Type 2 DNA topoisomerase 6 subunit A (Halorientalis brevis), 366 residues
Amino acid sequence: MSTDSPQAEGDARERLIDLAAQFYDQFDHGDVPTMSIPTRTKSNIVFDDEKGVWVYGDRHSTRSAKTVSGAQKLLKAIYTIDFLAQQLDEDRSSTLRELYYLSESFDEKDAQFNSQDESNQLIEDLEIVSEVRREEFHMRPEESGATIMGPLRIREQTRRGEREIHCQEDVGEGGYQIPNNPDTIEFLDNDADFVLCVETGGMRDRLVENGFDEEYNAIIVHLKGQPARATRRITKRLHDELGLPVTVFTDGDPWSYRIFGSVAYGSIKSAHLSEYLATPEAQYIGIQPEDIVDYDLPTDPLSDSDVNALESELEDPRFTSDYWKEQIELQLDIEKKAEQQSLAARGLDFVTDTYLPERLDEMGVI
């Protein structure tokens, strides 16, 4: 079901206006306007073992008009709320980048943003305090270009009305491009057995060219590196609504393990949306340090930053299982990392004919 229905848009606008009204009421009662939000530091991010995702802790910080900087932040919030409410009234949308530049037109100079990081953070603040996602504000990131390819039929809204698309038969080799708000997509039917999220474009193209999606009834999701929110959301929907197992196929290095972690458990940056974006049941099927040894894969040496990242992951709640401890300690021991495409050293068909089928079978996915 779409969350961009007129009802959802009305709710989003109402919550924004309610937030602005709270500032007015504080003024009206002679109080200094404030806005309380969870402290957005790493020390206030906790791993919820029951839900299996990152969430904010109990500490909060207060934006107060008692200080000049606090007053400026609240002023920027008011101007941004006014812009977003008008945008919803007109049924228009804008990108995060455009919001930064649009602030140049605000008639109060102190309400203008000094950087895009500042405007991006304010949108995240408004998401948290209003409990409305930015997609419902009609705010878009720049296009991520992430795609899906597989035996899935969907219905989506276009400027010319609804259309049905089969994500194999009705798309080119590039696949179906994931929209900014995947909740506007309706899943109609599918013949899929599992979802395979792939880090790199080169490997995604190899799988499609070799017909892996057709032979194994797989929905291939191209993550494009660190996955965008829309990519993580559609992956979660494919799991939750269609009951499909989710696997994540990445390079064999600490940064790629974190890509898996963001799909499975959420990211620190979007901890307020972990239950909406993360798929804790996702399984890692990427290049393992033991693969580097067993298949004698072409490798690169670990850099100092790689080593630091691996050591940090040994303390990360997302990687505390016996499996991850064993793999990370092995990687630190061999001092090597490898890319997905290093499997091509054994032939272009090795990944689809041998590596992935064997791993998927071991995991009980196929």
Remarks:
- Residues 6-28 form the longest helix (23 residues).
- The chain has two domains: 6-42+53-140, 147-362.
- DSSP finds 13 helices and 17 strands in the chain.
